[in-house]
Specification:
about 290 residues; about 75% helix; two-stranded antiparallel ribbon; mainly alpha
Length: about 290
């Protein structure tokens, strides 16, 4: 029973984190908040890694002593690509409400395709139904505008789908990385790569530079700690739960993340959904459920 509770706690942490970004980015530049949140999170992962590595009770959370240099390089490359998912997700929040961005960025089509064509897992017929339902949900959840130039697609939807692409493909491949290195080292490297991405972004993007002029990073330090705490809590509880219950069950519990995110967006951010958008989001959630139970 306890592992299932851990899985739900993890889903809850990630769900709250998805919506809290909406508050955090109002008073911070994207690069600042990602960078300083990453500093806090990597420090927590590093301390946990050190403690577990020097304990007598070695688990899959700790580093795999047999990991090769090439496996480390492959993992870092995966983490760098994965960090782009967060970049596009944060960009989507500029143009779409949380209740739209979260379901679209959570579509698992890319994860399934990666698992089938790269990891060699079996493609089930039920996936075709999931793809069709998800596609209909995407169309319904977006507000199309028709003008002389043609159909205008919501930019937030584009960013959300790009986030789904980068997150879906890399998280599927993290199955390999976790077996190479261990869960905590993987979490450390992932967040460290996010820091690098944020640092590059803040140094080369003119708009980010202008936002940060005269801004003290510590003026909004509570946002950094809240997001870091949610990230660390979600990751650690997920890593503990996944050792004791099947991955399929974890994915089913992970659907709770979407419910938490959408509910928080509606009740705390007063986001309004049209009937068509609500139906579209329901179809996206249904597509995920079809895959999990199929």
């Amino acid at each position: 029973m306890l592992p299932y509770i851990f899985g739900l706690i993890s889903a809850f942490c990630f769900g709250i984190s998805n919506t809290y970004w909406k508050t955090a980015v109002k008073s911070n530049s994207f690069s600042n908040i990602v960078f300083f949140r990453g500093i806090i999170a990597t420090s927590c992962f590093a301390i946990t890694w050190f403690i577990l590595s020097n304990s007598n009770n070695t688990t899959s959370l700790t580093i795999n002593a047999g990991a090769t240099f090439l496996q480390y390089i492959k993992t870092v490359l995966l983490c760098l690509v994965c960090s782009l998912g967060l970049v596009f997700y944060l960009l989507s929040l500029n143009y779409s409400p949380v209740s739209i961005s979260v379901p679209l960025s959570s579509i698992n089509i890319f994860s399934i395709l990666t698992a089938v064509f790269i990891l060699g897992e079996t493609f089930k017929t039920i996936y075709f139904l999931s793809f069709s339902v998800a596609f209909c949900g995407i169309l319904l959840s977006q507000s199309f505008q028709f003008d002389k130039k043609g159909i205008q697609w919501n930019r937030g939807a584009t960013y959300s789908l790009l986030a789904s692409l980068f997150w879906g493909t890399t998280y599927a491949l993290f199955k390999l990385a976790a077996s190479w290195l261990g869960a905590i080292p993987l979490a450390f490297l992932l967040e460290f790569c996010v820091i690098i991405t944020a640092f590059i972004w803040m140094t080369v993007t003119p708009s980010e530079k202008s936002k940060r002029k005269g801004e003290l990073p510590t003026s909004n330090i509570k946002h950094y700690f809240i997001l870091a705490a949610l990230l660390v809590g979600g990751t650690l509880f997920f890593n503990i739960a996944i050792q004791q219950i099947p991955v399929l069950v974890i994915n089913i519990l992970g659907g709770f993340t979407l419910i938490v995110s959408i509910t928080t967006g509606v009740f705390f951010y007063k986001e309004r959904l049209t009937t068509k958008q609500a139906l579209g989001i329901t179809l996206v959630l249904l597509s995920i459920i079809i895959v999990q139970f199929g």
